[in-house]
Amino acid sequence: MTTTATDHPPAPPADGALHKAVLRRKRVPYWLLLPGVLWLLVFFAAPLVYQASTSVQTGSLEEGFKVTWHFATYWNALTEYYPQFLRSVAYSATATALCLLLGYPLAYLIAFRAGRWRHVLMVLVIAPFFTSFLIRTLAWKTILSDGGPVVRALDALHVLAVTDALGVTEGHRVLATPLAVVCGLTYNFLPFMILPLYTSLERIDSRLHEAAGDLYARPLTTFRKVTLPLSMPGVVAGTLLTFIPATGDYINAELLGSTDQKMIGNVIQSQFLRVLDYPTAAALSFLLMAVILAMVTVYIRKSGTEELV
Amino acid sequence: MTAFATTGSNGTDVRLTGISKAYGDVTAVHPLDLSVPAGSFFALLGASGCGKTTTLRMIAGLEEPTTGTVELGGRDVTALPPYKRPVNTVFQSYALFPHLDIYENVAFGLRRRGVKSVRKQVDEMLDLVQLGDYARRKPQQLSGGQQQRVAVARALINHPDVLLLDEPLGALDLKLRRQMQLELKRIQTEVGITFVHVTHDQEEAMTMADTVAVMNAGRVEQMGAPAELYETPRTTFVANFLGTSNLITADVVGTASDDVLLRVSDTKLTLPGTRCTADARVGGKLLVGIRPEKITLTHADDAGTIPDGRNRLTGRIAQSSFIGVSTQYLVDSPAAPGLSVYEQNIERDARLVPGADVVLHWNPDHGFGLDAAQSIDAGTDVVELGTDAREAGT
Amino acid sequence: MALLNRLARGLRRNLVVIAGLATLAFLMLPNVVVTVFSFNKPNGRFNYQWQHFSTDAWTHPCGVADLCGSLSLSLWIALWATVGATLLGTAIAFALARYRFRARSSAGTLVFLPMAMPEVVMAASLATLFLNMGVSFGFWTILIAHITFCLSFVVTAVKARVMSMDPRLEQAAQDLYATPWQTFRKVTLPIAAPGIVAGALLSFALSFDDFIITNFNAGSTVTFPMYVWGSAQRGTPVQINVIGTAMFAIAVLCVLVGQLVGRRPRRS
């Protein structure tokens, strides 16, 4: 092999071949990345840039939109739709907390107490995914239907009286109230909480539980001092995986709520697909991202995950 | 160290009565009685899967016995959960809490029992294990040997009646293991607590323990002081598992005063009756055991120089390997193939090379007799397995 | 009294089991309802109230206009989205897991971002691009959108698997005279295969079940989730429940068979 490459200083033949091979090897990751990254740049990054420019455009469908650096769209969107923003965060945070509360025992059960039933339980947790989530969400309409067994039972136990007083249900119904929407959100995102929780719990060496017991910790203390701190990465991951999509969700509010439970996702959807006010929809999208980013940053700071293992 | 001297605790005795453990159809530990004297260093020795760790865990309360009782200092603790038992465990691979620093790991037990000021005790304990400077490090920032010392400190700080050690040195390299063996022995002598130590390493058990119980397949094969086990094994398993033994099948041809007279391929051997644990009936068979280092090799040309009264076997050297402190020979004899002989390198006979005809001879008092009905190989192959399967636990 | 005490103690000890099983019931309840209501014969357009038992919907699963058409469209899109996302994603995963290079962390961030963003934002921005480009919405825009959001999940699944692989295996293969390509074919790829399969299955499920992104990028094309969404306004045919139940049964069956097949070699 001869060294004819013009961009390299002349080198002995053997070295030149080696040099080329090394160069070729260095290029491998870039060739592997190229198609996928190009795809993401064109269909993910570029749209975000477009979206950003759209958010500062003005105009109408008929005359077309022009970039006029009209930042007032953001202010208008915020002042007009802040109730939906607040509602989204409140519903989503409540649903996330409920997911943690409901999901932790199940993840713990699968990780430590299930024995040979572990696989069966895992399949059962994932199984609902196999039915379209829209169909399952519609099923909650049946479960929570007015005068149905669930609502009648809650009524008889005076639960609805309490929730009514708290303002999360209305009269003798659950459907078309905040409770129904939060219930739907909790249900839909529960597996996203359970899976990371399970992963981090399963990783805990069972001898650490034994060691804690051996060092005079009662079961509850063992949980508080050993299990819970060690499962924090799972708690944080599960919280993010639940909170972020739940905040932008509009399906549960649409199917299980009424106009009084509209979330910010509903507004973006209708602005984009029905009102065709693209600048407002774009501005709302970026505001939503900003809200989520702020909440997530505060949360990660507070939970202090960087100190964890 | 004074912290312990002043408590005046001399440990507590452990008594296991008819204790057994079965998992479904599999019996991990057959009903066994075991009594560990207060203040002793007791070792449970066996290959992986022999039930030694299960036995230890039943003492700790981490495993519920299928039958039998556990008594600590005369108190029945069988029904107590681990957090109510006055024992502490040094776990295999230590089980240090990864989210807590060294200080908090060591303080864990004290805090759980509501001790308010732990500072002085923890500092003292960390000094004892020479880790005072590492208090605020996380366990994963420490070396294996340091982690091991934290595990010991974390258990000892609670002044347990009994300290249980589950293969505590298994994860360390040979040199560090030797060093920690002496260290643990020193600590045990100083604090006077009863130590129950589980290991698959026969050398470790013999170096450290006052009493060793050799376990095999869920049963205690033999229990006693290390020297006693080594000199007078009662089963082929113990003979092979503890060091190396040459076992020769011989016919019992008679008795003379206290000696048993034996014959193996036209050669006569004698064995003191007191060193024979099996029933020696004339016409029956017996396994004669002799440790390799008790045999002397003499070149066949010098056979006349061997004193009378010694057992002799003829053979031919098949292999020799120079170890440094000794030379190990493999000798094929008509009586038995592949006999091991260790000769100290004091005056080396240059004629002792593979192919040379030799006479093996030993003092009859150094032999031991075993029941010939047992497998002659029991315990020979498990030593390697024990080392490999360390992680698998028992 | 003793019995009551024992009961109380048993309850306390198994509290976590009881709570966990209650959560599981909460998770399974809608599936039960979907199955039961697939045998309903509702009065009127909506299948929310139990009326009469009937197997009509099961005997005529395609008895409603457009339903089975939307189903097959969804299956096709899911299939192609899986192929596209798996090819692109696996290549990225190998690059990120196996090589050290300058753009590595920025590429990692680019891949991570789509997963850390609410779907509605991604959906709206992609639709904005298509609108500005004058692309007409339909099969291709849905497919592009699906590949885009499935890609990151494939990368995550494959990368985790490749990262956990012992690099000495590849060195051992090269030591035993395997060329880089042979090493990849005979060692790396077989070991990474479970990760790739997991990523592909995840893509398929995500694409098949996606609503939000499709909602923004479908135009007048109707996928199965879009059909269900529309039916929530127009009236829900029982056939939706039939398809939901059948999908659930088939998937669970596949998992069970997979478990049985996967277990057999280990036993012998």
Summarize the structure.
By secondary structure, chain A is mainly alpha-helical. Helix content of chain A is 74%, strand content 3%.
Give your account of this protein's structure.
The complex is a heterotrimer of chains A (309), B (394) and C (268). With 309 residues, chain A is an all-alpha fold. Chain A has two domains: 43 residues, no CATH class; 231 residues, MetI-like (MetI-like fold). Chain A is built from 13 helices and two strands. A two-stranded antiparallel sheet of chain A has the order 1-2. Chain A starts with 12 loop residues before the first helix and ends in a 6-residue tail after the last helix. Chain B folds into two domains: 235 residues, 3-Layer(aba) Sandwich (Rossmann fold), CATH 3.40.50.300; 141 residues, OB fold (Dihydrolipoamide Acetyltransferase, E2P) (Beta Barrel). In chain B, the strands form four sheets. Chain B has a six-stranded mixed sheet, sandwiched between helices. In chain B, strands 13-12-11-14-20 form a five-stranded antiparallel sheet, with no helix packed on it. Chain B has a five-stranded antiparallel sheet with strand order 15-19-16-17-18, with no helix packed on it. The N terminus and C terminus of chain B are likely disordered. Chain C is globular and about 70 Å long. In chain C, helix 4 packs parallel to helix 7 and helix 7 crosses helix 9. Chain C is built from twelve helices and no strands. The model of chain C has no long low-confidence stretch (mean pLDDT 89). Chain C is an all-alpha fold and 268 residues long. Chain C: Belongs to the binding-protein-dependent transport system permease family. CysTW subfamily. Chain C: Its main location: membrane. Chain C: It is a multi-pass membrane protein. Chain C: It comes from Streptomyces luteoverticillatus (Streptoverticillium luteoverticillatus). Chain C: This is ABC transporter permease.
